[in-house]
Amino acid sequence: MNTLKFTKKSELSTEQHNQEVHKDKEIKIFDKKVNIYIPNNLSLFITNVCNSKCFFCINSNYTNQDKSDSFYYKSLKETLNELSPSEFEITITGGEPTIKIERFVKTLKMCHDYGFRFRTISTNGLNLLKKYKGKEVCEYMVENGAVHNISISRMDIKNNKEIMGIDSITDNDIEKLANFFNNHDAEMRISCNLINGYVDSMDKILEFVDYYHNLGVPTVMFRELVGVKSSPKMIDTFKPNKEFKLIDYIVAEVYDVEVYEYKDYIVKHYKQKKNNNKTSVKNTSFRNGILREDFNGNIIKNFKEKLI
Fold first, then answer.
1. Cβ neighbours of residue 227 closer than 8 Å, sequence gap 6 or more
2. What residues contact residue 86 under an 8 Å CB cut-off, 6+ apart?
3. What is the C-alpha to C-alpha distance for residues 145 and 111, in angstroms, rounded to an integer?
């Protein structure tokens, strides 16, 4: 999907990966040959359950039933044991992954113990300040190295509930979390989807960025939803004015990236290529004991257990 990222220059960190350099490699996973893109993004779906009711959610196609905790831990352990931390990085997602706080915390520790890097944590943020065994959930994240791309969903400044269907994380809690993560060298960001009637214009994008920057959030991202008619196209929404100075253009395999200076921000416009290389698997996913290529692709390993 096409993405736009605003980051304060003072908070700018080094990119985890060099977009221009990639490597494909054929490996065996549970005796199946898979040609993967390195580093491969392994999305761990901790749960299918979510407390939000976003109309655009791709997870709505899945049952809310989850397999037992014992099965989840066993199949995840076998999966992590099979994969190489030098070739895979972890994205934790759901459903809402922090609904099952114990599972979330134990998954963080398992990934850390096996030596995997975390790429992204996707959450609505509601449970990050909740206590589990005497510590807030956000503390476990930092302890286990989940410090990159802590992505908290927020779709509008004032009307978030209309989109997500719940009383979302408060501005006060966003400020607390931003302060906590900033003080622990962790990269928290607010993630917003472009939706008609909400954030759907350049003026609203800039208003949104300023609003959350004033709460201490250093990075704000916007995404164009794929296959959703109510999501405006990024090319029609992002209209750089004369205050935006183009300073770089990165040509990579999956995205081309326009890099701008705007006031005290660095702005990156990731433009997904329509005909990028399809010969390698760039993402894998683990959901309910099934390891797949991409999110709905070929099954690499299916661990068996009846649903509870």
1. none
2. none
3. 9
